[in-house]
């Protein structure tokens, strides 16, 4: 029956409420500065230029992967398979050089092509078979992890590796490819990715449609937006950025270790979710994701400098993620 | 036969923010009979029954059972007094991955376990089977509820209600989703229960049904009690008159519009659900109504026309050319726009700004080079639209969730005005909208027709249908029951056909 919808009260009710809003918007950025201050006091070398470059370099792969997750989140999806996709593209690109002596273009195209297949598989299962995003990409995560392992026969791929037939591999990774993973290029790639996706999501028609779909799928459909097409696009993009992450990783370490992408997944997820609240965006956004990655990078770097053992690091990262989520979801109530 | 017990509700009033939903309502019925409760949409039937079943605790007034005053404030109070309710949405009350038996005995396993920690399964299934046999329903108590049909689920809910002591059983529009044979089966069970001295309160929009199954009828209108009669002493037309009362005065703008050629015509449309053999056409500059009660299939028709639900059969023609509408995005390209009924769920993006909402259906217009959105142009047109439609908002940047219902609706309509369609489908556009904004919306719709657009206006508010349309299709059970010229008809006739009269 006609139970009228009460009009939501738009005016801030009390002072405490405003403080919370302030924390919501600027909490992450304030935290970053507070952390910088603490670490700098504890160890002045923390704010030296070389260390800052170090931090930026260390977060660039996480950021690129997290940007992919951000895109999947923007259509109210969630791509958990990016970690495995990183492993896959890492293995593909290195093996192209080492096993098959291919040139740089073929190697990179093959890696991105493999990732696009993953994205296509994800989007088919999600859009056509209608499996919930998170469950499907979780399944894909296992499948692709297995495929990457099978492809490399469970071995680390590197130059001069021993092949199954006992000979040594003869292919080399071109020196130009090695540049990608070094300063300044690795940082430039990250900045370009963040900027491009930020512009894509905020200033183009397609980005707007994705946010509309993420905000209200049914309304989007009834507005005539081809929802499925954009979901497919989101998963293809997410896989592409995972592939770029894998390629950069390959260039940085010059090998393809087993499950090399797995450790990046949780950091990237954390960065994307921390990014939700940055500057009060309230939705997945590229800049926020970058800030989230910076926060995690500073924490890791600073804690290492303060001699916190590496095995305790995940406790801190997980806590930060929980706090960021609390900030986002407590407010939505 | 036991002694009949009398249930009385006296001077029941209840208020929700801004609305007085019930005003000094009187209601009474006995055990061992079926009592019909009827009224137009918004008359307060469901609200009254929610009071009786304890869903709303903040009413004023008294409830007497067998002459004794009882205080019913929570569903538990109601159950202790032997009052049970089966809501229309059966799925909300059932747990799909448990068995029929577990669902029937849910209240016992939740409330009557005491200190026991282990569930006695054989006892539960035995008791559930007993109840099902008593009702003469042939479902195994070990079937999973998720495997049942809608009608069977309803049976399970009724079984649950009578698993405890049940003096009065409220059925809130139980027949709306049922087929004819399923309805017959339900009626059989209702009669069995009446024989066992249960008092049934039966809410329905379908007059012929009520006349078939009930002995007494209470009519409500605008949250007030109108009359209680025995079915034997009344007839359908009289009930319709009571439901309507005097007509509401409303301001409908009327422009003289030359009605042009047929723009959209539909022949024999079927969808996977309710819609059967639906045919209609709408001309240039014409406002065509789709009238019908809640659940008659109006929304389904609108969605089928817009490509938003699966159409299995039927021929759609736009300007004489046969077309296939695959999905909503296809419909938009072909010049059809839909303002959906569930505004917050389907029509607007509450988290987004007014301007994002307004341009969401026509963003291509504002993006050229590399798909970049021309925000300046977007802002300009949004401000224009806000002014044209009189949307009350602090700015075009304000989030839509902070606007009132009427203004949200204007935003939902505005987005299609920018996209400039040929055929506009409105599904209950005045739902939850205040009087002032209603008038604006009527003006807007008439204005569109004046500009030569074709309008399809679906509503259960018959007075609106009469006020604004040129021609009307009355829909009953997913089918066109009657096509009428608005000038030559009246509310009684519309209501007659929409309640299944022939």
TrEMBL record, chain A:
Q: Which UniProt keywords apply?
A: Cell inner membrane, Cell membrane, Membrane, Transmembrane, Transmembrane helix, Transport
Q: Which residues cross the membrane?
A: 23-42, 54-75, 104-127, 134-151, 183-201, 232-250, 262-279, 286-304
Example of a GO cellular component annotation carried by this entry? plasma membrane
Keyword RNA-binding recorded: no
Q: Does the keyword Cell membrane apply?
A: yes
What this protein is called in its record is ABC transporter permease
Q: Where in the cell is it found?
A: Cell membrane
Bilayer disposition of the protein:
Multi-pass membrane protein
The main location is membrane
Source taxonomy: Bacteria, Bacillati, Bacillota, Bacilli, Bacillales
A GO term, aspect molecular function: transmembrane transporter activity
Provenance organism: Cytobacillus praedii
